[in-house]
Amino acid sequence: MPSRMRLIESVQDLEDRLATPSDRDLDAIRRIEGDFIILGAGGKMGPSLARRIKRAVVAVGSSSRVLAVSRFSSADPVRDLSRDGIEAIPCDLLDRDQVAGLPHCPNVLFLSGRKFGSTDRPDVTWATNTIVPYHAASRYRTSRIVVFSTGNVYPLVKPDSGGSIETDPPEPIGEYAQSCLGRERIFEYYSREYGTPCLLYRLNYAVDLRYGVLVDIASRVYAGEAVSLAVPAFNVIWQGDANSYALRCLAHCASPPRVMNITGPETISVRRAAAYFARAFEREAFLNGEESDRALLSNASACHSLLGDPEVSLEELMQWVAHWIALGGETLNKPTRFEVADGKF
After folding, report:
1. CA 120 distance to own-chain centroid
2. Nearest CA among 206, 208, 209, 204 for reference residue 322
3. How confident is the model at residue 2 (pLDDT cuts 50, 70, 90)?
4. Residue-wise over 201-238: b if at least 16 C-beta within 10 A, else e?
5. How far apart are CA 132 and CA 186, in angstroms?
6. Res. 189: pLDDT tops 70
7. Rounded mean pLDDT of 316-344?
């Protein structure tokens, strides 16, 4: 069945789609006063989130500035962001003095974090996921902060459970997930002690056509490689929708922090996804290993009730991914490792 949204044909088309604000985004910008700063803007989501906010600011005639902060390993992202009217600020967020020198902004989106390599250098992961939050929470304790976190802070659950909800107690598996809970606790401390309005944004899993769980599975099916069943199910959300929710969550920060699960409404089985892509590519799907009875799953019904359903459905997203892989679209070669059940990344 054809998608109600046209397929994506190029990286430029993809970037444009990710950065185009929705009507709900424009309404949010009209209600939010002041400048916006994105800390950790050099990662996978930061640039498109910055561009979405900037486009929304321009569209509604707001005078708010949009600032993007990262170490920026090269001059290219600084140039590209600046060309779009975004103020790119190089900064090592592990350096307290550099963070202290950042401009004040009433609206903060905290995206900094480290996942892969945690097994080899857990010290770096802990520093990135706890010391950087300490610097940011201290510097911006009079601002409102949306703190990007992860569903990895929850335990594995049964695929038919509907997923973990925000009131479930955290049970992080492995040092990466433990350090992410540490990040949350740092912001929670500042929120409770200083009244900083925060929202803990537990994302699980965003899909940009260049990476994501669906991209991992589709790529393996297309290449004739086996797809692991070690973790039998997952949740996904189009990264553009994740960007939109992040912006709109600024209006729902609270002290103590509000917790919000961010993902799509469906639980998708690995078998189902592999079979879908096998049909799309007209080839066989090879499955590997025994199917366990536990998976990392989040229930985002609270988000959907408050902010509305994602604009891009699972069916549309799977069509986009299948088309992208079949046409040889660019990928980042950064597997999500969704099949990891022991927390070792």
Report:
1. 23
2. 209
3. very low
4. bbbbbbbbbbbbbbbbbbbbbbeeeebbbbbbbbbbbb
5. 10
6. yes
7. 92
Contact 20, 242 (CB under 8 A): no
Angle subtended by helix axes 23-31 and 46-60, to nearest 10:
70
Distance in angstroms (rounded) separating the CA atoms of residues 242 and 166: 17
In angstroms, the CA 141 to CA 188 distance is: 11
CB contact at 8 A, 165 and 303: no
Task: Give, in degrees to the nearest 5, the angle at Cα 248 between 247 and 253.
Answer: 100
Q: Select from 261, 277, 263 the least CA-distant residue to 205.
A: 263
AA identity, residue 343: G
Structure tokens at 3: 């998608």
User: For 247, what's the count of Cα atoms within 13 Å in the CB-facing half-sphere?
Assistant: 35
User: Is 194 strand, coil or helix?
Assistant: helix
Q: Which fold has domain 11-204+237-263?
A: Rossmann fold (3.40.50)
Close Cβ partners of 321 (under 8 Å, ≥ 6 residues apart): 207, 209, 212, 214, 215, 218, 277
**Residue 305 neighbours by CB under 8 Å, 6+ apart:** none
In total, the chain counts a number of residues equal to 345
- What string of H, E and C letters represents the secondary structure of 100-159? HCCCCCCEEEECCCCCCCCCCCHHHHHHHHHHHHHHHHHHCCCCEEEEEEEHHHCCCECH
Give the domain ranges of the chain: 11-204+237-263
